[in-house]
Amino acid sequence: MKLVSYEEDSSIKIGALKGDLVIPFSNDPNIPNDMLSFLESGEAVIDLAKNVIEKNQNTISMDSCRLVNPVLRPPKIIAIGLNYQDHLEEIRAIGREVEDPKVPMIFNKQSTSACGPYEDIHDPKVSDKLDYEGELAFVIGKRCRHVPRSEAHKVIAGYCVSNDVSVRDWQLRVPTFTIGKSFDTHCPFGPAIVTTDEISDPHNLQIKTEVNGEVRQNSNTKNLIFNCFELVEHLSTSFTLEPGDLILSGTPGGVGVADDKFLKDGDEVKISISELGYIENKVINEPPSTVTY
Questions:
Q1: How far is Cα 93 from Cα 217, in angstroms, rounded to an integer?
Q2: What's the rounded Cα separation, in Å, for the pair 19 and 24?
Q3: Pick from 54, 104, 133, 293: CA 20 to 30 A from residue 18's CA?
Q4: DSSP three-state, residue 99
């Protein structure tokens, strides 16, 4: 399944993407109407969803709805730093002293940074160092703790495309990365949660980032230093993973900071991963409406 959240008639609903159509899960009243509740409900509800997809009734054209982030407010957004060797090398080339990681480097992005696959991302008023990081992400499907890597595939609901948008000066002026990684709109992901049965191998997927049509990143998830199953094992040793948690697995080489190519108003960032689709976000200057108190 390709699980999506979408807006129709000013209401957020969930369903499955099939080609250029959405199959709404509202066709079955026993299926929850939000993604987090859907994931928390487990296998019985997944079977109901498969039945709805098979019947393929009352489909919705993509022209009459808008895809939003598959999980509107993930319980946790966890990201991994320096998880491709070529990214390590380019960071060293600009003068940062970093060692090959012996364990995954973990940081959080605040849940309010979650953003839709085709929504605008904000260039903050407080910085001119906005950067992209194309990444494979995965969504946890079961509450779990102490999961061995050999069993980790069983707790992953599916995979999606993500952008670990980064405000570099805010990220690097303190030892922890969270503040520079958590600006509102700085975690677009989607377009769908592609369930594991629809992916040949999550650790052999092509990943590419383009800015205004120029290829900036071009790699494969086989180059991850710590793969997704190893990340589940490591994270779940420390704390409970919950349905809807979003985990970004790290970015390959080619980030903007390495060549002093930062994003600006009007730029278009497209990140594509084979078998998962793509997200595409326009950069806009942070609007005045963000001031609220």
A1: 17
A2: 14
A3: 133
A4: coil
**What domains can you pick out in the chain, each with its CATH number?**
2-68 (no CATH), 77-290 (3.90.850.10)
- Beta-carbon-side half-sphere exposure of residue 257 (alpha carbons within 13 Å): 26
Local structure of 221: helix, strand or coil: helix
| 197 CB burial (10 A radius; 0-12, 13-18, 19+) | exposed
199, 159 contact by CB (below 8 A)? yes
Residue 199: CB atoms within 10 A of its CB come to 18
Tokens encoding 124 = 């903050």
Mapped onto helix, strand or coil, the DSSP state of residue 112 is helix
Res 27 pLDDT > 90: no
Cα separation, 36 vs 141, in Å, equals 9
Question: Computed from CA positions of residues 271, 155, 116, 35, in that sequence, does the dihedral angle turn out positive or negative?
Answer: positive
Q: What is the pLDDT of residues 66-104, one digit of tens each?
A: 999 999 999 999 999 999 999 999 999 999 888 999 999
For 266, the token pair is 């009007």
For 261, phi then psi, to 5°, come to -110, 85
